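Section 5.1 Outputs to date
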Amino acid sequence: MLSRTKMCCVDGDLVRVAAIIDSKAIGIEKPDPRPFLIALEALGVDPESCIHVGDSLHSDVVGAVNVGMTAIHVDPLHLCEDITHEHSNSFVDFVDKVVGP
């Protein structure tokens, strides 16, 4: 779907990414640690060197933190009051903070 919608791809002429791990495609839903561990293995990196950005407190934040990743919770409505992880208004805001506008 990412390739079909021209968002990104693992190989080809679109924006290239190192790996795409789809919980539904592998049959293992987050927050199970296995999707995160598969991603870390595909990238060849330690969890401490990764940031997982997601919009679900339960699936994304809990899952990432449980494997040792830093988690950024995309929470545009500021509904999450949990101060144990970072928040961002949007993925664009997160990227702007990391690489600049």
